[in-house]
Every structure is written in C-alpha cells, then in structure tokens.
Task: structure prediction
Amino acid sequence: MNYYTDENDLNKLNSISPQQPGNREKGDAGVLDIFVASIIKINKLAEICVQNSGKFVTYVLFMAVLVSFMSYLVPTASRIYSFGGFNKLFLEEFPKFTVNDGIVTADKKFEMRFSTGYLIIDTDIDAFTEKDLEATGVYIAISKKYIKLINYTNSDLPSNYTEIYSYPVGYILPSGLDNEKLASLSPVFYFSYIVVFFVQAVLAALKYLLLALLYAFFTRSTTAISKLSFTMKDSFHLAFYAETIGIILVNVNKAAGSIIPSFLMSAAGVVISIVVILNAIKPHLPDLDEFMSNQDKK
Result:
C-alpha cells in the first residue's frame, strides 16, 4: 500500500531537511558569479558555495592575482611609466655613479618611492642608520660601503628599525658598474618586476586562506545548523568568499597610499567578513521552533 501526504507538506519537509552530501546539486556558477554574490547577492552566497565547491581553487587564484594587481602591479607600473622606463631611469634620473673595489661614488643624493618601498642612495655616508630615515616604509638603502634592506616605522617603539639584510657593496655590485652598464640590464629588472608580482599573489593567497580558516572555525557553529548540508570545507570556502569585500577595500586603500590607517582598515575588513558570513547563512537557518523540534528528535 502506498501512502501519500499533501504536496505542500512534502515541499515544506524538503525545504527544512538538509541535503545529503552525496546528493548535492551541482551548480554552474562561474568565478565572476561567485564574485558578484560575495559583494551584492550575499543571500545567495551560501547556496552557491555548497553547489560549486569545484570552483574554489580558481576563485582563490583570481583573488590572489586581483590583490597583487591592485596593491603592487598598478602602483609600480604607474611609477615606472612616470620616469619613462628603467633604461631612462638609470641614464637620466639616477645620479652618475661608479662602483670600484666595493666603494660606490655618486654625484648626488637620490630617493625614489615605489609602491610601499623606497630606493635611497647617499654615498656621503658609509652606511645608513635609523637617524638617516624619516618616512615609514621598506628601504633599499645604498651608501658608500653598504647596501641594506631596512624595514622602518616612524615611531618611538624599540622595534621600529629592522635591518632585513646588510651587505658590503662588493658582495652585491660588481666593480666597474656604472649607469650605462646598469641600463643594459633593464630587461632583467622588468623580469624581476613580473616575478615579484606572482610572489605577491602567492603571499596574498596564503594570507587570506589562513584568515578564512580562522573565520570558518569561528562561525562553524552557525553553519552547522543550516538547512544546507554544510561541511567544514564548505564553511572554509564560504569564509574565503566572504573576505572579498574586505580584501578589495583594504587593497584599494593601500594602493591609494593608505588614506585610512592600515590597522583601522584591516579591522574593518575583519568585521565586514564576519557580517557577510552571518548574512549569507541567515536565509538557511531554521526558526527557533523548528530547531528545538529537531533537537528533541535526536
């Protein structure tokens, strides 16, 4: 004997019963669909996340390239364009310099900003120290006898000055190097520029994947009671998608020269990501009576 119930009851049952992991519908949302949902159609984001898990790696790559494009490629390319390329920079903008037996001699001081870093040349001093720097940033500092990579923060904190490396000139620059020989190496600098772009993209991906994992643990209790069949992996995917707005805001602010202090913008990004996660999962949460009823049946 077959038993039937009202069709509306069946529909209601299906609407509140979690899908089984093995019976998931496969979505056809592309990377741009996920991007739009992460920003505008947030109420659709959780469903897209569950049905399109195969697109996650592609989306991570997309966001990593986007971050590197905004924070590094565009600002640095604009700077390179402003001085007419590396060849013109070395021949016309750089001070006239020579390297002989580990000693750099230049006819003037020079400072150039690129992205969040600085190249500074002053051969009147043997080596750069904290007192020679003013603005916060990362410096490639070339003096008479030393080349240093320095991370400097303009503050009174004891850790405001860090020498990432410090080498005698002779370890880095060959004797006989001058403006013309440096200009002949312009293709190498362009290649390095592209390599740094991809390195920045990889570092961005690792950074935001780690943050997504932390968000996923934080919000797992909420996704666990969803009407959707949400695994921990789905929570992780959702957390990464939810970072999209924060990622864009933080890196646009960085590209614009940190109009808003970086710390405040990063904190705002964290809050925005959590709000997006909660709003994405909200349409799929059972009401209180339904949730308590399901608890009683267990």
Summary: Residues 1-23 have pLDDT under 50 and may be disordered. The chain has twelve helices and seven strands.
